[in-house]
Design brief:
Layout lengths: L1 E5 L3 H13 L3 E6 L2 H11 L3 E5 L7 H11 L4 E6 L5 H9 L3 E4 L4 H12 L7 H7 L18 H11 L4 H8 L3 H15 L4 H9 L16
Parallel strand pairs: 1-2, 1-3, 3-4, 4-5
Helix pairs in contact: 2-3, 3-4, 4-10, 7-9, 8-9
């Protein structure tokens, strides 16, 4: 796996680059600004760009948007040192392949990058739960999520967990065609076309309980 890393904290940048290299990741460039990240992706054509969300000058999400539009082969995984949930919703709506916290172990970050490379969507579940925390009481309206069957709700939770199709086949003990059919039914009911769109949609909706204990209350 070949990556470019971008973070404005030089010490963290160098430490993460060194640690990921020890996990078999080839770090093509380690840069400090979003503009440098976009140029490094154009130069090296990496498998993944790992980029911070917040910068003193520039936006990691804007850089992600430019990379996704101009270099679609390169997946973007964002990392953050804050617990602000709103940037995650924006990043997922842009189409990033993953959203992680910096305070994870390096081996966990390396596994998340491998998952993103395989087509999964690694997302920090603590941040996702913050996005879905109960909101001020308002009358709850029916949403497309209510039309999902119990099986589709289960598969939706697996999508939120970033599982690939192959991993869902193993978890559910069914064929790939069965998983794909369920996923396409979910997409159709939610009005989306990709996993990332589904995650972005659900990140702004408090009606799905990612723990698997049923629906979360809006009130």
């Amino acid at each position: 796996m070949r990556i470019v890393i971008c973070d404005d904290h030089q010490l963290l940048l160098e430490a993460l680059a060194t640690a990921l290299a020890l996990h078999g990741v080839t770090v093509e460039a380690a840069v400090c600004t979003p503009d440098e990240a976009v140029r490094a992706v154009a130069l090296h054509d990496p498998d993944i760009l790992v980029i911070d969300v917040n910068f003193p000058d520039g936006s990691g999400i804007q850089a992600a948007r430019e990379v996704i539009a101009g270099h679609p082969r390169t997946k973007v995984v964002m990392i953050t040192g804050t617990e602000e949930p709103d940037p995650m919703v924006e990043a997922l709506s842009v189409g990033v392949a993953g959203y992680l916290r910096k305070d994870q172990r390096v081996d966990a970050i390396a596994r998340a990058l491998e998952l993103a490379q395989r087509g999964g969507t690694p997302i920090d579940h603590d941040l996702l739960r913050q996005v879905r925390r109960p909101r001020p009481a308002i009358p709850r309206q029916r949403t497309p999520i209510d039309d999902l069957t119990p099986r589709e709700h289960h598969i939706l939770r697996l999508l939120l967990a970033g599982m690939s199709t192959r991993e869902m086949v193993h978890d559910l003990d069914v064929s790939q065609s069965t998983v794909r059919t369920h996923v396409q039914n979910i997409f159709s009911k939610l009005g989306v076309h990709t996993r990332l769109q589904a995650v972005a949609l659900l990140a702004g909706d408090a009606t799905v309980d990612v723990s698997g204990n049923g629906h979360a209350a809006n009130a």
